[in-house]
Specification:
Largest sheet of chain B: none
Largest sheet of chain A: 2 strands, antiparallel
Shape of chain B: globular
Strand order of the largest sheet of chain A: 1-2
Largest interface: A-B, 49 and 52 residues
Radius of gyration of chain A: 25 Å
Number of helices of chain A: 13
Oligomer: heterodimer
Order of helices and strands of chain A: HHHEEHHHHHHHHHH
Distance between the termini of chain A: 60 Å
Helix content of chain A: over 70%
Number of strands of chain A: 2
Helix content of chain B: over 70%
Structural class of chain A: mainly alpha
Number of helices of chain B: 16
Shape of chain A: elongated
Number of strands of chain B: 0
Strand content of chain B: under 5%
Chain lengths: 325, 334
């Protein structure tokens, strides 16, 4: 057992080291993007995980110690970001919003990957009429504004299973499956012809083994940058659904897009805090995820990667060399 | 291949490929709207209507016929240019396309101009001065602009320019007085009359949507410039002793901008999605505004009709882009 674990680690660690190497080698703007993005993302993850500790109030709390909070109060000492028309604390809603956004987007991305990647793998590897049919359908969907796909799915589901986390997540999933399908399928097609895949086939490996051992890991390398950029996009999509009233319902959790929708009517009377803070939260989180994704892309993608040229140290110059200098 | 095929042959092949794409989109819409769980008619009536009324409306709309008959009627209707009539206010979809579609066209056209202007300018500068503070600034600007939801940008615009500075109106296409005094022939207000009031109403929504779309343009154009500046012919131009200025302006930028047509085309879908949100924020009576309103009414036929229109527009744009590209770049004709 111990030897097995040891052998596993032996094989595993160099692979991880190799995968992380570009990140260590990243430099300049790519490096700055990577780390700034990671820091911002981490900040929101912490907000989401410890919302109940960090937040001064609950997201739907409108009173404390028997006193109702003021309505639409400007930012002050007791309410750093002010209060909404329902007397709830804007800061609490912003903090709990991080929880909602990350939860929904995580569910949606896992589902989109779980559907899109296998479909792309099978379709790309086997080809044939199934592949052609899937490509036609996915291309048609891909050309379509994905916000509209999400809205229609959310609308249809809200009539059957009701609005909420699951509906929003499925709507976002539906919008992104075509993207993952395309990326994975196109990559599989180019990998399928690689000599090492041919070699595996020639050795008599079953298609399942070839896909699992040779194709999958090479394709999956492309996924982290795409998924990170996609998470940024998915936050915007969820906020848009919330803004249009098809996102998370007010009782289920705080959601920034929904809050901005409510803030539109406040704006005409010059009330800025109900809209500004949730909006800034969206901008910051999406910026963070985008920086992280772009940074990953530039460090992992060899076409965009700029390596640091290490100074080669030849040791002190020999007397003859020194003369030539 | 390649050389032997004429432009006409290419166009015909491309047009032939449209048919399956349209058919697939229409089928997906139909399946989603009709086969999805939940009864559209009782939902659109608020779920409280008596069964007899529901049945009567179902009969009127042909919802009681077998699915394949409904499918056929639906396709045949679209072929004849009949997209149906809304359940909630008995408005023909063609009317929505004419009136609301014109408003959306007006908004997206000006938004696209702003997006291309900002995107090309910032993208070219960022790409030309790669890895300098200008590049970092341009890229950050692009990322933040992309990260800002259209409706949030719109809200802030309303607050600053509408409420605080009181420079610009924050909603509608024209003030009530203007709307009462002038008649529109095309439904595109700026075509009918250049009135300050109409332009003023257009500024905030178009700028909001334009800026939100510019983020993508900046990114793509920057990468394009970088790629072009690395090309052999640029090196050759430099080797011939042409000034760097001339190399950049005459040789690199021109070629870097050729794919802009494709980029614009690809992002039309994004722009249309953004238009739905912009129209809702600014109470702009476009087709996206109508869609949101009918969604709220649970009006299935209206939603279906509008989605079909969007699908047809998207396909039409993609074909148009391909034609333009084939016209410009002979290598594309296959």
């Amino acid at each position: 057992m111990a030897t097995w674990a040891h052998a596993g680690r032996e094989r595993f660690l160099p692979a991880v080291g190799r995968a992380l190497k570009p990140i260590r080698e990243a430099r300049g703007f790519a490096r700055a993007m990577l780390w700034t993005g990671a820091a911002i993302t981490l900040f929101f993850i912490v907000l989401a995980l410890f919302a109940s500790v960090i937040s001064p109030y609950a997201f739907n709390q409108y009173q404390a110690n028997g006193h109702r909070f003021p309505q639409l109060a400007a930012p002050s000492h007791s309410h750093l970001m002010g209060t909404t028309v329902q007397s709830s604390d804007v800061m609490a809603r912003v903090i709990y919003g991080a929880q909602t956004e990350l939860k929904v987007v995580l569910i949606a991305l896992v589902m989109a990957l779980a559907v899109g990647v296998p479909l792309g793998l099978l379709s790309g590897y086997y080809g044939g009429p199934l592949d052609r049919a899937l490509v036609l359908v996915m291309d048609a969907l891909f050309a379509f504004p994905y916000l509209l796909i999400a809205i229609v799915i959310a609308f249809l589901l809200s009539n059957s299973i009701g609005k909420g986390v699951l509906t929003a997540a499925i709507a976002i999933t539906a919008a992104y499956v075509p993207l993952y399908f395309r990326v994975v399928r196109n990559h599989v097609i180019s990998i399928r012809e690689e000599p090492y895949v041919d070699a595996a086939r020639a050795l008599g490996a079953r298609p399942r083994t070839v896909i699992r051992k040779y194709v999958f890991f090479n394709v999956v390398q492309n996924v982290p940058p795409i998924a990170t950029l996609n998470a940024a996009d998915a936050i915007l999509l969820l906020a848009a659904l919330g803004f249009l009233g098809y996102g998370i319902q007010p009782n289920d959790g705080a959601e920034w897009g929904y809050d901005i929708n409510r803030a539109v009517s406040d704006a005409s009377s010059g009330i800025w805090w109900t809209g500004l803070f949730p909006g800034l939260a969206i901008v910051l989180l999406v910026t963070g995820l985008t920086l992280l994704g772009e940074g990953l892309n530039e460090t992992i993608n060899p076409v965009l990667r700029r390596r640091r040229f290490g100074r080669i140290d030849f040791g002190p110059p020999t007397p003859t060399e020194a003369e030539n200098l | 291949m390649g050389q032997g095929t004429s432009l006409r042959a290419y166009l015909l092949t491309r047009l032939a490929l449209v048919i399956p794409m349209v058919l697939i989109l229409l089928t997906i819409v139909f399946l989603l709207m009709r086969v999805a769980p939940g009864d559209p008619i009782s939902a659109s009536l608020g779920g409280h209507a008596p069964q007899a009324v529901i049945n009567q409306i179902k009969h009127q709309l042909g919802f009681d016929k077998p699915l394949y008959v409904q499918y056929w009627n639906y396709l045949w209707g679209i072929v004849r240019g009949d997209f149906g009539t809304t359940i909630s206010d008995h408005r023909p979809l063609t009317d929505i396309i004419k009136v609301n579609g014109a408003a959306t066209l007006e908004l997206t056209f000006f938004a696209m101009i702003i997006a291309v202007a900002v995107g090309v300018l910032v993208g070219l500068i960022a790409g030309r001065f790669r890895d300098t503070p200008l590049d970092v600034g341009g890229r950050l600007f692009g990322i933040v602009v992309y990260a800002t939801p259209v409706f949030f940008l719109g809200l802030m615009g309303q607050l600053v320019f509408g409420v605080w500075l009181n420079w610009l109106p924050t909603a509608d296409r024209a003030s009530p007085i203007t709307q009462a005094t002038f008649t529109t022939h095309t439904n595109i207000f700026v075509l009918d009359a250049i009135i300050g009031d109409i332009i003023k109403h257009l500024i905030l929504p178009a700028t909001t949507l334009g800026l939100a779309t510019a983020g993508i343009f900046i990114r793509l154009i920057r990468v394009n410039v970088i790629r072009t500046l690395r090309d052999d012919y640029i090196e050759a131009a430099r080797a011939r002793g042409i000034t760097e200025r001339s190399v950049v302006f005459h040789h690199a930028f021109k070629n870097a901008l050729v794919p802009v047509i494709t980029i614009v085309g690809l992002n039309m879908a994004l722009l249309l999605g953004g238009a739905v949100l912009t129209e809702t924020t600014f109470n702009w009576p476009g087709i996206g505004h109508a869609l949101v309103q009918y969604l709220g009414n649970r009006d299935y036929t209206a939603v279906q009709g509008i989605i079909v229109v969007f699908a047809l527009v998207v396909v039409a744009i993609s074909v148009l882009i391909d034609f333009l590209n084939a016209y410009i770049d002979p290598r594309i004709r296959y």
